[in-house]
C-alpha cells in the first residue's frame, strides 16, 4: 500500500502522542493518573472539558487548559512524525493530516496541510463570543497553584475584555468558533479530490470518540488502502485494510524506517 501510493493521508488520534510522553486520557483511570487533583474531585475528562466551567469556575477551567498548553509546548514530537513526513515528501501528492488532537504536534514536526477537527489549544477565542475572531495563544502562560487552579489574571478577549478560552470544541460546546477548522477542512477536502488514491495511515484513534476512525474509513473506502495502528482497538470493519496492534513509534519505525 505504501509503496504504490501517490499520496499519504495521516489520520491521528490521541494515541499518536503517547510515544512523545503525552497522556491519551484513556478512561477515567488513565485521566486521573495524569491529573490526580481531578481524581480527588471525582471529575472525569468529559466533565472537566465542559465549557460551562469558563463561566462558573474559570480558575478551574484555565488550570486544566493552562497545564495542557504548557505541556504541549514542552513536548517534542517523537521520531514517527518525521518518518511520516519524510515518506510523504517522496510522493507526488505529498502528505495531509486529519487529527482530533489539539496539541499542535504535527505543525511542530513540520507538516503543512493539517486539519484539526476539534480546534487548537494554541489559539484562543472569546467566551461570549463577542465576534468571530480567533487569535494565537503565544503570550498566554497561566500560573497554576498546587491544585492545578489558575491564578489571576486570566486571559481576556482583546475586543470586549471578557474571559478568553482555547479555540477547542469541548463537550456540549455551543460557543466554539469553528471557522479556522472549517478553512482547514476545505483545504484538506480539496487535497483529497486531487489525490483520490492516497494511502491512509491511521494512528492512535480509538472508538470512544470515533471522529478520526470514521474519517479514515471514509477516505479509504474507494481503495481499501487503510493501515490502522492501534494497540488496543486495531480491527477494521469488513477487513478493508491492514491492522497493526502496536503503538505509533514502533509501528511507524517498522513500516517506514530505513
Please, could you describe this protein's structure?
- The protein has 258 residues and is an alpha/beta fold.
- It contains 10 helices and 9 strands.
- The strands form 2 sheets. A 6-stranded parallel β-sheet has the order 3-2-1-7-8-9, with helices on both faces. Strands 5-4-6 form a 3-stranded antiparallel β-sheet, covered by helices on one side.
- The longest helix has 17 residues.
- It starts with 7 loop residues before the first strand and ends with a helix.
One letter per element, helices H and strands E, the order comes to: EHHHHHHEHEEEEHEHEEH
Spatial order of the strands forming the largest sheet: 3-2-1-7-8-9
What is the CA-atom radius of gyration, in angstroms? 19 Å
Would you report the number of β strands?
9
Q: Using the alpha-carbon principal axes, give the shape.
A: globular
- The helicity comes to 25-40%
The chain-level mean pLDDT equals 94
Number of helices: 10
- How many angstroms does the end-to-end distance come to? 17 Å
Q: Which structural category do the helix and sheet elements fall into?
A: alpha/beta
Q: How would you characterize the largest beta sheet?
A: 6 strands, parallel
Portion in strands: 15-25%
Which oligomeric form is depicted?
A: single chain
Low-confidence stretches: none
Amino acid at each position: 500500500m505504501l509503496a504504490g501510493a501517490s499520496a499519504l493521508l495521516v489520520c491521528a488520534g490521541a494515541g499518536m502522542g503517547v510515544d512523545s510522553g503525552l497522556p491519551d486520557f484513556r478512561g477515567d483511570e488513565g485521566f486521573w493518573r495524569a491529573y490526580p487533583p481531578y481524581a480527588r474531585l471525582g471529575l472525569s475528562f468529559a466533565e472537566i472539558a465542559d465549557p460551562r466551567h469558563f463561566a462558573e469556575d474559570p480558575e478551574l477551567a484555565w488550570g486544566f487548559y493552562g497545564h495542557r498548553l504548557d505541556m504541549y509546548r514542552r513536548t517534542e514530537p517523537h521520531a514517527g512524525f518525521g518518518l511520516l513526513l519524510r515518506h510523504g515528501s517522496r510522493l507526488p501528492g505529498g502528505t495531509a493530516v486529519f487529527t482530533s488532537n489539539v496539541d499542535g504536534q504535527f505543525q511542530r514536526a513540520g507538516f503543512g496541510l493539517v486539519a484539526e477537527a476539534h480546534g487548537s489549544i494554541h489559539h484562543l477565542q472569546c467566551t461570549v463570543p463577542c465576534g468571530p475572531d480567533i487569535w494565537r495563544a503565544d503570550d498566554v502562560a497561566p500560573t497554576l497553584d498546587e491544585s492545578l487552579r489558575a491564578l489571576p489574571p486570566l486571559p481576556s478577549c482583546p475586543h470586549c475584555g471578557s474571559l478568553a478560552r482555547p479555540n477547542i470544541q469541548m463537550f456540549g460546546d455551543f460557543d466554539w468558533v469553528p471557522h479556522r477548522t472549517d478553512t482547514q477542512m476545505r483545504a484538506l477536502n480539496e487535497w483529497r479530490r486531487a489525490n483520490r488514491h492516497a494511502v491512509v495511515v491511521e494512528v492512535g484513534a480509538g472508538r470512544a470518540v470515533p471522529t478520526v476512525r470514521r474519517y479514515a474509513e471514509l477516505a479509504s473506502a474507494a481503495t481499501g488502502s487503510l493501515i490502522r495502528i492501534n494497540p488496543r482497538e486495531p480491527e477494521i470493519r469488513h477487513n478493508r485494510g491492514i491492522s497493526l496492534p502496536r503503538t505509533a513509534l514502533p509501528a511507524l519505525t517498522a513500516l517506514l524506517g530505513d
